[in-house]
Each structure stands twice: as C-alpha cells, then as structure tokens.
Amino acid sequence: MSYLQNVLSQVEAKYSYQPEFLQAVREVFESLAPVINKNEKLYEQEAILERITEPDRQIQFRVPWVDDTGKIRVNTGYRVQFNNAIGPYKGGLRLHPSVNLSVIKFLGFEQVFKNSLTGLPMGGGKGGSDFDPKGKSDREVMAFCQSFMTELYKYIGADEDVPAGDIGTGAREIGYLYGQYKRITGLYEGVLTGKGLSYGGSLVRTQATGYGLLYLVNELLKDHGDGLDGKTVLISGAGNVAIYAAEKAQQLGGKVVTMSDSTGWIYDKDGIDLALVKEIKEVRRGRISEYKDAKPSADYHEGRGVWSVPADIALPCATQNELLIDDAKDLVKNGVKAVCEGANMPTTIEATKYLQENGVLFVPGKASNAGGVATSGLEMSQNSERLSWSFEEVDAKLKGIMTGIYQNIAAAAAEYGMAGNYVAGANIAGFSKVVNAMIAQGAY
Ligand code: NDP
Fold first, then answer.
1. Does some domain include residue 373?
2. How many separate domains does the chain show?
3. 240 lines ligand 1 (CB under 6 A)
4. Which residue among 25, 153, 162, 343 is least packed, with the fewest CB closer than 10 Å?
5. Domain range for 269
6. Least confident of 29-33, 91-95, 296-300
7. Is 255 a catalytic residue?
C-alpha cells in the first residue's frame, strides 16, 4: 500500500463519523497523488500527511445565552486551529444549525490550502456554532455573540488567530464579537476581519468573495479565448457571496437568471433585479420567495432546482454539497461551459468528476472563492499599518491576487501533466508552500 493510501485509510478509520471532513481529505489526497508519490520517502519520513490532516488544536465550548423570554439557551461553540506553518490561523466563523465538528474540520482543512494560494502569510482555521441567527432578535444575537467571544477570546489574537465571517456571520455579528473582545482584553487590534468601516474594516471586504470569484471566472474564460459578455449565468444562494458574485457578473456583461435560498429558488428570464434581492436579503432579512411578489413575471419554485436551467456558466454560492451528480448531468446536457465554486465544497466529488470528464471548466472553491480571505489578509495589513486604503486600491489588489491564483493553479496542473485540471492545480499549488514551511520548521 502506498504512503498516501495508508494515511488515507488511517484517517478514514479514525474519523469515520466525520463525513464532511473525510470528503475534503479524499478530494485533496486524490488530486495530490502525483506530488506525494514523487516525494513519498521524504513526506513519509516527515509524517506530512499525518500532520496535515490533524489540526494543531480544536477547541469546543458551551455558549450559554439568555433569550428574549428570559430563558437560558445553550449552543456549542468551536474553533479548529488547523495549521499555522505559513502565518497566523485565519478563517471564518459559521453560525448555522448544521454546524458540528466534522463541518468545521472540513472547512479548516480546506482553508489551509486556500490561504496558501492567496500568496499572503495566513495559516488555516475555522470556527462557529450550531446557533441559528435566523428569527432571533438583535438583542438575542448580541447575547449569543458576547457569550461566544467570552470563551473564544482566550485563543485568538491579531498575531495568533484572526476569525472572520461565514454563513450566518455578517457585519452585525462581527461588530458584537469585536465589541466583546475589546471589552475583555482592552485591546484595539485587528483580531477579526470583516469589521465595519468605522472601526478598522477594509473597503471591498463585503464584495470580495463574489467579486473575486468573477475576476477568476473572467481570467479562466480569457485563457480559453472567451469572455463573460452576453453569457447566461446561474447562481445559487442569496447571501453575501451570491449577491456580490451576481453584481460583478452583471457588471462584466453576464446575465444572471437564478438565485436561491434554503427554501426555494427564483428564475428571472429578464435577468435578476439585484437591487430587489439586496432589499429582500440585506435590508428585510426576508425569503427569496418575496422576489416574485415584487416581480410577478419571474418564476419561484420551492426546494432545489437552480441547475436545471440552461446556461453557459454555473456558480454555486450557497453551501456544501448543493450540486449533485444529477445536477451535473443537467448542466452538461444543457451545454454549460464553466462551473466555478463560490461556496466551500458545494460540488460533490462524483459531480466534479462528471463535469471534468465532460469537458466543463471546473474551478474549486479553495481557488475561486479565495478573494474573501485574501481581502481579509489585506484588512490585517491595513490594521497593522493603521492605514485605510481606497476602494480602488483594494479592488485592484484583489483582482491581481485572483489573476495570480488562476495562473498558479493552471501552471501547477500543467507541471504535473494535468493541464486544465484546476482541482489538482489548486491542491498542488496550495499544498507545496505549506509543506515546505512545515519541513523547514521541524517536528511540531
Ligand atoms: P450567507 O449566510 O450570507 O448566505 C448563505 C446563502 O446560502 C443563503 O442564501 C442561504 O439561504 C443559503 N443556504 C445556506 N445553507 C443552505 C442549505 N443547506 N441549502 C440551501 N441553501 C442554503 O453566507 P455566505 O454567502 O457568506 O457563504 C456562502 C458560502 O460561501 C459558504 O459555503 C461559505 O463557507 C462560502 N464562503 C464565504 C466567504 C465569505 O467571504 N462570506 C468566503 C469564502 C467562502 P438561507 O438564508 O435560507 O439560509
């Protein structure tokens, strides 16, 4: 049995109860096979695969908070500090009822490679809670955030671990978390990113993941002699990533015809009215079904279905495992040219393979959605310098980083004889830098 197979079997046996984490490890290992096999002796001696699949530490804690009726409620909080070989741990906090240790470990593991790909000095981590901000009052969200930070503050710091937003953690939650950190520690430091502009946040952070995704899509299409102008685009989700992906797609001449949330999806043949989606989601915190109330010419469907619509480009921007094998078959049947992930691991391994085998240009989230964490890295730099850069300055840096990521993953895939396999390219490019740093720093 090869070294890679051996470690994979060990991880599968040890963490058989963590399906999302194992899915991420399998996907990464499979595409890294050529690199690992080439360096097998060294990596085995250094126990690289054993070390890279075991977090530096994982913290789990009780989060008690008082609801509006005066009752004490209890959630579970997590922070997984996965790997800090190339910089302080960095990664978001997810607040969603589906959060558990397996989900946080999968996200933290992916984050290690993603952060490496940005070219910025950031290690990987992730955290969150099974708390659901939906339907809670502002005061309840604040009570939860204050309690969560009262425990988390012990483990984070501007040079140690810098959390950010993710599903369910937006500007409001980051504000409450930051306020509590400052209150407990007395430190005014860049310990969180995604902060408001008036207290150390960076311009473009809100737009960064969605804009960055489209900068990468643009570069990918350009490299294949094509462009976004006039293309029909499918987007799933209606959160931070989806909204700003739609905005940039429209700015670049694409026609976005779908968006969704966890209850249903809309199809607007005339192109999505983004101002309306923003009003529903960012202002009213409502459901995507309300789109049809305002625009009766659009279609609304309960449940899933975005990927059944014919289009040139598909951008899954909601959550993990939302693009399944049957969706991939529909997309291919309808002639899709490119699928680029805005969310983390939205495409199952089976669906990814089907898309690749059928000639679809496929870019995994760790490369295509890295614009968010890259801009968080830029926010950290601004906080350290105590400076604020202009929108244009940050946007130009983001564009440069996304272009660089595309070129790196394309080159890494080509170097190992897998030109056009961007999954392999992203894993190889992200992995090599982290591994070199781990070897240089010795056994730890
Ligand atoms: P938001 O919470 O802003 O939005 C998430 C969207 O996805 C909502 O429309 C939500 O619908 C929908 N959604 C969530 N869970 C499900 C589900 N189980 N089934 C169907 N739809 C669902 O999150 P973000 O936009 O920030 O994050 C989206 C994805 O992008 C995640 O995978 C995240 O990890 C990833 N990501 C985010 C980054 C960022 O900067 N924000 C950076 C890199 C990756 P509803 O409102 O009904 O729950």
1. no
2. 2
3. yes
4. 153
5. 208-363
6. 29-33
7. no
